Amino acid sequence: MSEENVIKVVELTKKFGAFLAVDAISFEVKAGEIFGFLGANGAGKTTAMKMLIGISKPSSGEASVAGFDVYTQTELIKKNIGYMSQKFALYDDLTVRENITFFGGIYGLSRSTIKEKIKVLVADLKLENIIDQLVGALPLGWKQKLSFSVSLLHDPKIVFLDEPTGGVDPITRRQFWEMIYHAADKGTTIFVTTHYMDEAEYCDRVSIMVNGKIEAMDRPKRLKEQYEASNLNEVFLQLARNSNPE
Predict the structure, then answer these.
(1) Helices 170-185 & 140-151, crossing angle to 10 degrees?
(2) Measured between alpha carbons, how far is 174 from 202 in angstroms, rounded to an integer?
(3) What gap in Å lies between CA 53 and CA 172, rounded to an integer?
(4) Which residue in 36, 133, 142, 181 has the most C-beta neighbors within 10 A?
(5) Model pTM greater than 0.85?
(6) In whole angstroms, what is the distance from residue 198 CA to residue 183 CA?
(7) CATH number among 3.40.50.300, 3.30.420.40, 3.30.70.1400, 3.30.450.40, domain 1-80+160-245
(8) CB neighbours (10 Å) of residue 182?
(9) Strand pairing class (19-30; 5-16)
(10) Cβ(146)–Cβ(135) under 8 Å?
């Protein structure tokens, strides 16, 4: 992890009519950091991420991603990031090889580079027996690992992962996090949203959103010490109670 901030957010806000989905959040993410963006479903995590990746315009505030402004340089942001959506994004009616080839072309990679990337993925993920199978026939865990690998094809500076392990078994979740560690070790910044508080323990730092606001942010160990909690779920429950007093 370096001292360079690759994501900078100052009072970023998103309104839908009278509804305040994201309420003046501020934070920074360093290069090579695994940053957990935590909260219950509906807390505003995905809305905030969509502003950062350039597909939703903020209502107010400031933010830059990989050095580019979220208002005026969204296309440059998209070229410099990877993104794995909450809903599986690859094409079920294409084979694994065809999906990698297709997305490599979308990212502007040459044919020779795509071929080399396929070789690397086959070796790393042990895809020898499924490389020419339809993606739709694969188990969800395989789909998720493949989708993450495809988001890294163009060697982005930052990868945004939106609830990447939803619906998969605990063993696959652990394997997925090993892939995240490997990418971060190579210098890729990981920005991950999740409502699984146990997963947050794997992050370098976490923020916890409640009702559109960031109510706490620090290293997992420090947050547990601060709130005298044995795990981050207890921290979250305390913050939720404080934010919604009876």
Answers:
(1) 10
(2) 10
(3) 26
(4) 36
(5) yes
(6) 20
(7) 3.40.50.300
(8) 12
(9) antiparallel
(10) yes
The neighbouring-strand residues paired with 84 are: 161
Q: Which is nearest to 194 in space by CA: 75, 20, 73, 37? A: 37
In the structure encoding, which two tokens stand for residue 48, read together? 């905030």
Mean pLDDT value of segment 11-21: 94
Using the Cα atoms of residue 44, residue 150, residue 74 and residue 69 in order, give the sign of their dihedral.
positive
User: Do β-strands 205-210 and 60-65 pair in parallel, antiparallel, or remain unpaired?
Assistant: unpaired
Phi-psi region of 82 (alpha: psi -120 to 50; beta: other; left: phi over 0): beta
CA angle 102, 105, 109 (to 5 degrees): 135
Query: Domains of the chain: which residue ranges?
Result: 1-80+160-245, 89-155
CA separation, residue 135 to residues 65, 82, 83, 130, 226 (Å): 31, 20, 18, 9, 45
